[in-house]
Amino acid sequence: MASITKTPTGTWKAYVRKTGFPTQIKTFRLKRDAEDWARRVEDEIVRGVYVVRSGAEKTTLNAALKRYLSDISPGKRTGVRRETVFANALAGELGAYSLAGITADMVADYRDKRLRTVSPRTKKPLSPSTVRLELALLSHLYSIAIREWGLGLTYNPVANIRKPKAAQGRDRRLSFADEQRLLDECAKCSNPFLRQIVVLGLETAMRKGEIQGIQLPDVDLDSRVVLLRDTKNGAARTIPLSLRATEALRLALAHPVRRPAGCVFVFFGEAGGKYNFEEAWETARNNAGLQGLRFHDLRHEAVSRLVEKGLGDQEVAAISGHKTMQMLRRYTHLRAVDLVSRLDRLDEGT
After folding, report:
1. pLDDT tens digits along 212-265
2. Which CATH class is domain 58-149?
3. Burial degree of 6 (CB within 10 A; 0-12, 13-18, 19+)
4. What is the per-residue pLDDT across 56-91, written as a single tens digit (0 to 9) for each?
5. How many whole angstroms separate alpha carbon 149 and alpha carbon 145?
6. Which residues 6+ apart lie within 8 Å of 227 measured at CB?
7. Which of 140, 198, 257, 336 has the smallest set of CB atoms within 10 Å of its CB?
8. Measured between alpha carbons, how far is 134 from 328 in angstroms, rounded to an integer?
C-alpha cells in the first residue's frame, strides 16, 4: 500500500509498503511524480519484477569507476595505469551522472564526441580503437555492476549502441636497409640493451612486455629456447631462438649490470634514467629516419618474415602466440617481390 506525505521543506515523500518486501521510500519535488512512482513500484511488486534501484540511482559513474579501478583493473592484464586513462575520459563527460541515469543515447553522444576529439599528443582525432576501448571499459563496468555489485541495475546502456569500426591492421614493413640504420642507431644510445631488444623483436615476434619479462632461469642458450611465463593471452609459451636471437641474448647476459628480480633486461627506468627504454627507442628510431615506426611494428615484421621463410601457420602461431588464424593473418604482410621469387623457385621445381 502506498502513501504520500508532504515534508516540511515542501517536497513530497512516497512510501510503498508490501508484506514480504522492505519499505520503499523516495522523495520528489512534485506530488504527481511521487504518485506515479508509487503506482509503478506497487505494480512491479505485484507482478514480481520489482528491482530496488536505489543503489544505482545513488552511485555516480565517478564512484563506480573508482571502485572498478580499485577492485577489477588490478586483476586484468591491461592493468590500472592504462585503464585509468580510459576512466578519466569517461569521468570527464559522464562522471556526474548516476549509473541508473546513463542511457544509450548519452553513450552514443559520448562516442560521437570522442571521435571528434583531437588528441593533445598527436594533434589528430582520437583513433576509433581508443574510443572502442573506452566503451569496452564502460560496458564491462556495467556488466560487473549488474552481476556482482547488487546495485539494482538490469540494463547495460553500452550493449546495443554502434561501436566505432576497428582500425585496419598496420601493414608497415621494415626493409633490411631500414633495419640496419635502426640497429646502428640503437648501438649508439645510452641504453646498452636496446640493440639486443630490437633484434629479439625482429627474430622472435615477442611483444615488448614479453621481452621485458624474460627471467634468467627461463633462458636456455644451449637448447636455444626461452620460456615466456607472462604473456598477453595468459598462456605460457616456449620461443625457439634463431642463431641471431641467441647471440643477442648472449650479449645481453654478458653485460655487467645488476638485474632486479632476475630479469634479463633492464630497460624500464624513470624518465631520463640511464636505461629508460621509451626515450632510447624514440631517439634511435627518429635518428634512423623511421618516424612513426612503433616497437609493435617489429612484431608484424617478424611474423611476416617467419611466413616468408616457409613456416606454416601453426608453426608461426606457436612462436607468436596468436590463438586464431584470423589474428595471425592480420599480422602477416608479405612482400610481393618475395612472393614473385618464391613463385619462380616453384616453377623451376616443376
Report:
1. 888 889 999 999 999 988 777 667 888 899 999 999 999 988 888 777 677 888
2. mainly alpha
3. exposed
4. 778 899 999 999 999 988 877 666 778 899 999 999
5. 5
6. 218, 220, 236, 237, 238, 239
7. 336
8. 25
CA 34 to each of CA 30, 41, 215: distance values in angstroms, whole numbers, following the listed order: 7, 11, 64
Q: Please name the amino acid found at residue 141.
A: L
CB 98 within 8 A of CB 56: yes
Distance CA(103)–CA(105), nearest Å, equals 5
pLDDT of residue 335: 53
Read off the C-alpha cell for 117.
Answer: 576529439
pLDDT at 73: 87
Residue 186 cell numbers, joined:
640503437
CATH architecture of 176-349: Orthogonal Bundle (1.10)
Note whether 58-149 and 176-349 share their fold: no
Cβ atoms 164, 132 nearer than 8 A:
yes
What was the pLDDT predicted at 270? 43
pTM listed for this prediction: 0.60
* Cell 618474415 sits on residue: 305
Q: Where are the domains of the chain?
A: 2-50, 58-149, 176-349
Q: What is the pLDDT of residues 296-319, one digit of tens each?
A: 889 888 888 888 777 877 788 778
Q: Which residues are catalytic?
A: 207, 232, 296, 299, 322, 331
Q: What is the CA radius of gyration of the chain?
A: 28
Nearest CA among 144, 153, 156 for reference residue 52? 153
CA distance 36 to 243: 76
Residue 160 contacts residue 104 (beta carbons within 8 Å): yes
Q: What length does the chain have?
A: 350
